[in-house]
Amino acid sequence: MAELHYPEAADHTAKHRALRQKVEAFIAEEAQTPSRRLALRVSRFLTEWLIHHIRDEDQRMIDFLRQTRRQQQTLTAKAERP
Questions:
Q1: Cβ–Cβ contacts within 10 Å for residue 64, how many?
Q2: Is the sign of the CA dihedral 59, 60, 66, 67 positive or negative?
Q3: Model-level pTM?
């Protein structure tokens, strides 16, 4: 993301950092009071986060990277022409 100057790289990274912090909080909570209810909350949270993140966030990044790659290929092809 950084190498290709993805404009939302900082935000994307921050969302992954927040996910990691939330999972760490779940782990700490589980260590204190393991419960079936907590397991369901974790499962629900991760399912929703992953679906949203992959469908929205990652798809925007993929679209940007594809567009960047096409632009680079076009520039390379032009440069290789006699």
A1: 17
A2: positive
A3: 0.74
